[in-house]
Amino acid sequence: MRINEYDLVKQVQNSHWWWLGREKIIETVIEKHVDLSKKLNIADVGCGFGANISMLRKYGDVTGLELNDEAIQSVKKRWGDSVQTVNWKSPNPLSMKFNFMLLADVLEHIPDDKGAVEWFYEHLTDNGYVLITVPAHKFFWTQMDEVLDHHRRYTKKSLSNLFDGRFEIVYCGYYNMFLFPIKACFLMFDRLKRLIVPTAQKRSYNDLPPSLINSTFKHILMSEASIIKRGQVPFGVSLICLARKALPTLTP
Fold it and tell me: What string of DSSP letters covers 91-133?
């Protein structure tokens, strides 16, 4: 991700509707589907400035894996020795294993996503979980994806297929359904702008919106957590997937 986008994330992640709503969705899937009877050893893969670390610390010890030095220093400054940090880039191997990994909108930044899944397998303990959120639907591709250095957007099927073989899909579904029409409007705006002003500087549009819009969107997105507690959201702008490392099959 580009340096100016890291700076923007640092400014807005603790108050922006998107980060707050996504955190609620992640928390809901963890508490419904993950065995929390024992303390987890957690890797926040691509942790950035630590948007999800406070939430994750409720469930166990957190290690932040991150490439950006400023983000690592920010995590260290906030949590000190209580959160370990590792300067890491996919698919570099580590000498440690975890029983839970979170990749919150990280996989789409990794060129070889199939290789990333192999990395999960090698660095998870038996029956360990990996939870992933990603942007959905190729038809929603906009300048936002380009500025954020995305390599792809996913469908439920394409994301699930990555885990064929050695992982069991515990949960895989869409979210951000109610704001789907807003995303569709943005898509039309994006394409019209490119047509009218093809040389205009590309933006992620991740700036903090006016407070009323920000609060409204936050509550709309968070409301989907109650649907996910009972089942699945039928469609949406994003996907969330929880997979568990399967035990090796013993042959007679």
Answer: T---S--EEEEEEES-GGG-S-HHHHHHHHHHHEEEEEEEEEE
